[in-house]
Specification:
The protein is α+β, with helices and mostly antiparallel strands. Helix 10 (263-295) runs antiparallel to helix 13 (346-376) and helix 25 (722-732) crosses helix 27. This is Anoctamin.
Length: 889
């Protein structure tokens, strides 16, 4: 049986220091309730386990007894706080300390990089005009909490090679809790005489209720500095310089974040901060384009013609729905045409192309920033092989079949192919069902739009009273329908999102992924695919389907057949772009506001509820952290998902709303501080984990970036009114000067009112008072068709085909221009900066040189003292020194 090793025979090549002598000499004294040490005040608490006595106590007590006995065999030191000493008088707390021998052994196993010499590589020169950035800088001791060192994987046989000034502080708390968790996740809880190799790990003990929680401790209270010189105040510095909202304009202390929380969380905040910085440039360009739309407001001849009583007021439009809708005058859409011009102008084309290049620059510069962090954080040679080989406890429990692992040459559980295919098919059907459910909900919203538009049109028809007429001109049926439908759609999105999160986790658990990395990647793809359809489907409908399949009077297209009376929606004469803008603003802003409220309030309320009865004067450090919210392994998953969905909004549909990057920038400035506040004050300290990139999200961002070029090109071509205006300006303007005068009349076709079918004829009560059928015999509609009486009446004119050709040509040209620039920029900007490459090569060379010199000096000493050295007997004959769970060391 494979058991936990005993470390009593581990050789200690260094002489005993103050640490071991203090343990022997320190007497028991009254414990400070806010301490992070054992009762002796010397041994640091590296991990906490809590549990309760309940009705299944005997079985759980046996598991705990065996588990804790095996932890002691592994070399860990334990101390129990009984329920009589706890604040709630019912919770036991098991404190765990890893002594030097354990830390050294497992640091060797995990190949943790530690310093062996202070770095002599000079940093880059100071940036000119550095004084401009001083208000945004943090103190040097916060930005760089420790000097730069050359590092090398820890080797227990070369302890005197490394810079070990003090064993107590050589391994930082984040490294200590990572090592302890590594032991906890592999320690068995069965007796040695049993052949039950699957019963091991703290995860399973948490799942079956043997322990209620397992977490490392924060180092101190976040609102005050720790007075104990043996303990750090890193949490206090993080709160003071990072988590407070008043620090929103300051840089992030990434090195301190990495030191306190580990590389995985550090990479997330580095990416979020970099994304926010890049959003600043997109936001500035979006504001410039919007400002151009405002400044060119008075030059908009199209809107002037629509609002002109002699032009727009004399144009009678055909009904927009059957029966309930009547004839209406074009100038009733005066306000929406002016609003549309703010976002649909010549600057929008430039901004759409700019965003296609911006997203490439963002991804390429992030790769460079990521490479720099990999070097600074000793992640250059980091590989996730160990994570990939670590089997999830759920996989071991549910998979009873076993086979030989070619890498470890040990028997391990596996899922047979027939079972795997069956589970994948059920998972695929479930995902497809939920995606069809989203489509059904979007269809329901479309039906709502079609049905309610007629009601709004009948309520808001022209009234002889000036007051109601003014209101009707401000709130048009199109606007009322669009806004209410957008709010309903947002509510549906949030409801479906709430249920699908649980469904996605359930079907991913059902697939039984082998490793945690595989589990997270599968869940990431399912959640993003669902969120993509859930959040973006309504925007895709407005952008690419609304107003495109309408037909014309006498031959309208109906959603569920002619007799359903649900006629497909038409775009406003100003275009559908303003409706896409409304949809985007409501869904994007609503999601960000709800997300921030949920992230900030829910942990605060839950923590208040857990600690409301606590006696503050006797509230120990482990009890304070126990009452905080647990940070799950999928905690960062939801943070990334939120930001990637936002990234889709500001790239896929940004041509319709240039101010979207500005909204995202304001949200992210708040998001950084809300997330840092949660981590520092509301969550337990997570177990430190390594990661050298943002994982599967990098590929998702690349796909969204490519898709954004296509969507924005189609929005500019088919949703915007830009191409028809340009075709009219340069090909169909009747005068000698190229102006937009007469464009409105040119873009509207004519239909004979007498030929409107009875099904579509307005009811008597819906016809406005100004309409006189004796001299109004035609109505206008948005299309390019021949007028009545023409030999090809109501068929498309040549101008329609010219415009269609121009739209397709614009899509091809824009896509090719942007893609060529994107690929050129990606080729021009190397993923790894040349300076980082040089530093990596220099450091590797120096490491080899120092190791060589160390071995030579060691050999000389051994040769000179060989006459007094006697060989020591071998303690363990195990061939694989990395197998720390073997029967001996």
């Amino acid at each position: 049986m494979i058991g936990m090793p005993s470390l009593e025979h581990v050789q200690d090549p260094l002489p005993p220091n103050s640490y071991s002598s203090n343990i022997r000499q320190t007497t028991q004294k009254k414990q400070n309730k806010d301490t992070v040490f054992f009762r002796d005040g010397v041994r640091r608490i590296d991990f906490i386990l809590s549990y309760l006595d309940d009705k299944d106590g005997e079985k759980k007590q046996e598991r705990r007894r065996e588990f804790e006995a095996n932890l002691k065999k592994a070399g860990l030191e334990l101390e129990t706080e009984y329920k009589s000493d706890s604040d709630d008088l019912k919770t036991y707390f098991l404190k765990i300390h890893a002594p030097w021998e354990v830390l050294a052994t497992y640091a060797d196993v995990l190949k943790i990089k530690v310093p062996f010499k202070e770095s002599d590589i000079p940093h880059g020169q100071d940036v000119p005009l550095e004084w401009l950035s001083r208000p945004f800088r943090l103190p040097g001791k916060v930005m760089r909490p420790q000097p730069d060192y050359f590092t090398s994987p820890f080797d227990k046989d070369k302890i005197d090679f490394f810079l070990i000034k003090n064993r107590d502080t050589f391994f930082p708390p984040s490294t200590r809790n990572r090592i302890v968790y590594y032991i906890l996740s592999r320690c068995p809880y069965h007796k040695e005489d049993r052949k039950e190799t699957d019963k091991k790990g703290i995860k399973r003990l948490l799942n079956n209720g043997t322990y209620t929680s397992a977490f490392p401790l924060h180092d101190c209270r976040y609102w005050e500095r720790n007075t104990n010189k043996q303990c750090e105040s890193e949490r206090y510095h993080l709160y003071k310089n990072w988590a407070r909202f008043l620090c929103f304009y300051k840089e992030q202390p990434l090195n301190l974040i990495r030191k306190y929380y580990g590389e995985k969380i550090g990479i997330y905040f580095a990416w979020l901060g970099f994304y926010t910085e890049m959003l600043f440039f997109a936001a500035v360009m979006g504001v410039i384009c919007f400002t151009y739309g405002v400044l060119s407001y008075d030059d908009n001849l199209t809107s002037k013609e629509i609002c002109d009583p002699s032009i727009g007021g004399s144009i009678v439009m055909c009904p927009l729905c059957d029966k309930k809708c009547s004839y209406w005058k074009l100038n009733s859409t005066c306000l929406s045409s002016w609003q549309s011009h703010l976002f649909d102008n010549e600057g929008t084309v430039f901004f759409a192309m700019f965003m296609g290049i911006w997203v490439t620059l963002f991804l390429e510069f992030w790769k460079r920033r990521q490479a720099q962090l990999e070097y600074e954080w000793d992640l250059v040679d980091f590989e996730e092989e160990q994570q990939q080989l670590q089997i999830r406890p759920e996989f071991e429990t549910k998979c009873t079949d076993q086979r030989l692992n070619r890498i470890t040459q040990e028997m391990e559980p596996y899922l047979p192919l027939p079972k795997k295919c069956g589970r994948f098919c059920l998972s695929g059907v479930t995902v497809l069902f939920w995606m069809l459910l989203i489509v059904a909900c979007i269809t329901g919203v479309i039906v709502y739009r079609l049905a309610v538009y007629a009601a709004f049109a009948s309520i808001m028809k022209d009234s002889p009273t000036k007051k109601i007429h003014l209101v009707g001109s401000l709130i048009t049926p199109q606007l009322a329908t669009s806004v209410t439908a957008s709010f309903i759609n947002f509510v549906i999105i949030m409801i479906l999102n709430f249920f699908y999160e649980r469904v996605a986790i359930w079907i991913t658990d059902m697939e039984i992924p082998k490793t945690h990395l595989e589990y997270e990647n599968k869940l990431t793809m399912k959640m993003f695919l669902f969120q993509f359809v859930n959040y973006y489907s309504s925007c895709f409908y407005v952008a690419f389907f609304k107003g495109k399949f309408v037909g014309y009077p006498g031959n309208y297209t109906y959603m569920f057949g002619k007799y359903s009376r649900l006629r497909n929606e038409e775009c406003d004469p100003g275009g559908c772009l303003i409706e896409l803008t409304t949809q985007l603003v409501i869904v994007m802003t609503g999601k960000q506001v709800c997300g921030n409220i949920q992230e900030a309030l829910l942990p605060l309320l839950r923590n208040w509820w857990c600690s409301r009865k606590a006696r503050k004067d006797q509230y120990s450090r482990w009890e304070q952290d126990h009452d905080l919210q647990n940070f799950s392994q999928l905690g960062l998953f939801y943070e990334y998902l939120e930001m990637v969905i936002q990234f889709g909004f500001i790239t896929l549909f940004v041509a319709s709303f240039p101010l979207a990057p500005l909204l995202a920038l304001c949200n992210n400035i708040l998001e950084v501080r809300v997330d840092s506040w949660k981590f520092t004050t509301q969550f337990r300290r997570p177990v430190a984990a390594k990661a050298h990139n943002i994982g599967a999200w990098q590929e998702i961002l690349n796909v969204v970036a490519i898709l954004s070029v296509v969507t924005n090109a189609f929005i500019m071509a088919f949703t915007s009114d830009m191409i028809p205006r340009l075709v009219y300006l340069y090909a169909y303007h009747p005068g000698s000067e190229a102006t937009m005068s007469g464009y409105i009349n040119n873009s509207l076709s004519v239909y004979d009112i007498s030929q409107i079918p009875l099904l579509s004829t307005p009811e008597e009560g819906a016809i406005p008072a100004w309409f006189n059928s004796s001299f109004i015999t035609t109505c206008r509609y948005r299309d390019y068709r021949y007028p009545p009486g023409h030999q090809r009446q109501y068929s498309h004119t040549m101008q329609f085909w010219h415009i269609l050709a121009a739209k397709l040509a614009f899509i091809i040209i824009m896509e090719h221009v942007v893609f060529v620039v994107k690929f050129f920029v990606a080729w021009l900007i190397p993923d790894v900066p040349s300076e980082v490459k040089a530093r990596i090569k220099r450091e590797r060379y120096l490491i080899q040189e120092y190791l060589h010199n160390y071995e030579v000096e060691k050999l000389k000493i051994q040769l000179s003292q060989s006459f007094i050295i006697e060989p020591k007997p071998e303690v363990c004959t195990a061939t694989d020194k990395h197998d720390v769970l073997s029967e001996c060391l």
